[in-house]
Design brief:
Keywords: Cell membrane, Membrane, Transmembrane, Transmembrane helix. This protein has 14 helices and 12 strands. By secondary structure, it is α+β, with helices and mostly antiparallel strands. The longest helix is centred in the first third of the chain and has 39 residues, at about 15-55.
Amino acid sequence: MRLIIDIAMTHIAGRGRQTLVAVIGVAVGVGFSIAMAALMQGGQDDFVEQLVNTMPHVQVTDEQRTARRQPAEDAFDAVAISGLRPRDDRRGIINPTEALSWLEGWIPGRFAPSLRTQGVIRYSSREVGAAIIGVDPEAEPAVSPIVGEFVQGSFAGLTAGGNNIVVGDTMAERLGAGLGDTVTAVSSEGLSRNFRIVGLFHTGTTARDEGEAYVLLKNAQILSARPNAINEIRIKLDDPNAASAVARRVEAEIGYKAVAWQEANESILEALVVRNVIMYTVVAAIMLVAGFGIYNIISTITHEKARDIAIMKSLGFGEADMRRLFLLEGVAIGAGGSALGWLLGFSLVYALSLVRFELAATGQEMTRLPIAWSVVHYIIASSFALGSAAVAGYLPARRAARLNPVDIIRGAT
């Protein structure tokens, strides 16, 4: 085996310029594949992290997964019921104290009850539609991402009691209001109440910054004419990946709809899987192109070394040895390109991590490109490179192994 390795290295060194071009081709493919994978994986991880951090891991609402069975369906053998006028039930989650006590006994995380109602915030003849959310200021910081996102005031302003409100800075800008100003909140029931702004938050998510306002839970209950009611329980888990299992257990026990963050963003997560498939398909295509360069080099060596092959087979080298020889040459070029590609990939990823820019229009603010540093990217890129190199080396190796030494010596080829 050592003799075959020495012969393979001699063949590769004998065509130094072509070998260098092939190695550089593989290195460029591996390097850019690593950089692309790091950038795309970093963007995906950053996006998923934003999803996980900006919304509850599990959200329990006062909705039912399926419509309640009507009493008429039990009393009569009816095929269909039409003209049904359902009862207006505004109680929210029934027996909230019992539900919260049950959650407190086993939930692996934190939770907070709230009452969400739709309404309008008015100030100086201007109006903005908003979700008015009544919260418990002691439990809310454990589940809400806005607590640490205040540009003026703080969430703690709600704990002082009274008619206080915190709103997004974009909403305040649209209203022309500022910290300390008094705004009027009008609910969908037509009830109104004055609130003093004690905090302005900025999450970077436009829908929240201009469409959400937080008040004390009791004030939201009064405003919506729903005393002692809650219609949401938001849960933050120690392990976000356990959200689906927790949601199933909560829904089975309480009976209300419990949605895990994976279910709420199912279409987005499916799109990310498709994007990963596309990314690795592109990586495979890049490595395939680099493989053609290796194939060209090994084919040329096979053609030029035909007489050497004949002599070696005459000396007792078998077909397996010939295949092993030229396959080894292809893999050696792929390995050399992979090693150089690792260095190039690391340099590209490091350079991308230094890029700074500001984006403060819509969506999330960013100051750096999201980069994922992972050894897996290097292993995958090298695997593709070595795989294509092995295929590129095997085809000429198989042809070289089939050559008849007698025909070669006689000049038949």
